[in-house]
Design brief:
mainly alpha
Amino acid sequence: MTTREFQQDEPGRVFRAAWIARVRKYFPGEPKPGYVTPWDDTPGWERQAASAVYTQVAQFVGSADGATVNLSRQQKGRFVALCWIAQIYKHIPEPKPSYVADWDELPTWQQETDSDIFEEIEKRETRGVGE
């Protein structure tokens, strides 16, 4: 992999690493292998989706000049979940209902994971803001 390819993949890699770490933290029991598949073994569509969602969250945080720190964890997680659902519809013509479940239908482990992912991206994107 070239440096350029790595840089293009970096948002998705960050998203995926945050997802895997939080799934391991919050998932009750042993997570499904697909939930913790390393980046290089993750399907292409899922890598594209991870990069897109990272970028959407980063743009949202940036457009608010860091004021997203005032959002609740639930609001942050909902944003990640909604962005992910849009990517599912983009890449999977007829997704299973569980793939596009609304926030209130998600298991607690997934809500916590999505909230943490937002906060991870938020931290990365607000370094230096207001300093």
